[in-house]
TrEMBL record:
This is YceG-like family. Residues 119-146 are annotated as: Disordered. The chain crosses the membrane at residues 12-33. It comes from the Bacteria. Residues 134-146 have a biased composition (Acidic residues). Residues 121-133 have a biased composition (Low complexity).
Amino acid sequence: MALDSARSMKKILRFLFGLFINVCILFILVKAFSYSYDFAYQVFATRAADPGSNRKATIQITQDEPLLDVADSLKTAEVIKDKYAFILKVRIGGYADDIQPGTYQIAPSDTNQEIIEIITGNGKSSSGDSNGDSSDDSSGEDSAEE
């Protein structure tokens, strides 16, 4: 009789342990899919880090500064949410070689695409003032060279 109760207790513990392992695996999968979705959303969506913010952050980009350092500066200034999503968006768009050195005023209310346009010189001239080669102030607009 004691042998039967030991066997049934062993079966119950084996079942509960298997159930616990399956729940842990399910939890990990849900977290992984959730993170993947959020990451992909940050890469492909046009949402700002802080849409309601009125503040501006000053970002300094030097000549030949690696993209990782640029993204790290933007993340530190809380202008972007995820530096790796920003890097991927820049690489997918083919803008990695177009980043211009200079000092830029960038707001957290700017989307990743707007930030890319600002730091590559293809965007709003009012949000960034580049210390680039251009010294001609006769025109109020920057022209895109494509």
